[in-house]
Design brief:
single chain; mainly alpha; 0% strand; rod-shaped
Length: 206
């Protein structure tokens, strides 16, 4: 492995660094975007119970906000529960937009890695091919096996860039779709709370 990396030249260094960053982002997003962590089960029912018991101290609301992304959204609804339904929904949607942005954290970086690493690999190959043809210009074709070896080394960076880009792009697409599903799920849960607090739905429908 090290021989391949060293054969690729200096441009293999940023490609390797991009691969390390991609692995870190993928692992972190898998941990952070677990559905149970983003949308805890039965949280709306617990919040409705708090509302019925009038347990709306600042401490309880702060704890709810810190519990999960859905908790932040529901806390915004509770703070504005004395307003009409539309204003309460607007407050929830505003906070929901911030939460959705947080859920997409690092995904742009992962997408950039997927787009840039093939270009780095191609640049390394072009530089390598320039060196190979420059050598041909000075000393001629010489031994064909040496020429083939030089070309194969030049192609190492392209292979490395593509090897990093493919999984990065796959996980970028996966996480973007997963975040969209989580955002829709949070919207549905928050809407349940709005409907219950404004007597348009029974808590039994939670």
């Amino acid at each position: 492995m090290w021989e391949l990396i060293s054969a690729g030249g200096l441009l293999m260094l940023p490609i390797v660094l991009c691969s390390i960053a991609a692995v870190g982002i993928i692992a972190e997003r898998f941990w952070t975007l677990k559905r149970d962590k983003v949308i805890p089960r039965d949280l709306v029912e617990k919040v409705w119970y708090m509302a019925r018991q009038r347990e709306f101290s600042d401490q309880n609301l702060k704890a709810l906000e810190q519990q999960s992304p859905l908790g932040r959204v529901l806390a915004a609804g509770l703070v504005n529960k004395h307003y009409d339904r539309d204003e309460m929904k607007d407050a929830i949607e505003e906070v929901g937009a911030h939460v959705a942005h947080d859920l997409e954290k690092y995904l742009n970086t992962l997408g950039t890695i997927a787009a840039v690493t093939p270009l780095l690999g191609l640049l390394g190959t072009v530089i390598g091919m320039i060196d190979v043809f420059g050598e041909i210009t000075h000393v001629g074709v010489g031994n064909p096996s040496d020429l083939a070896g030089g070309i194969s080394k030049a192609l190492v960076t392209t292979a490395g860039g593509i090897a990093v880009a493919i999984p990065s792009l796959m996980f970028y697409r996966y996480f973007r779709g997963h975040v969209e599903e989580l955002v829709i799920g949070m919207e549905q849960e928050a809407l349940k709370l709005v409907e219950i607090l404004h007597k348009r739905r029974s808590h039994k429908d939670i």
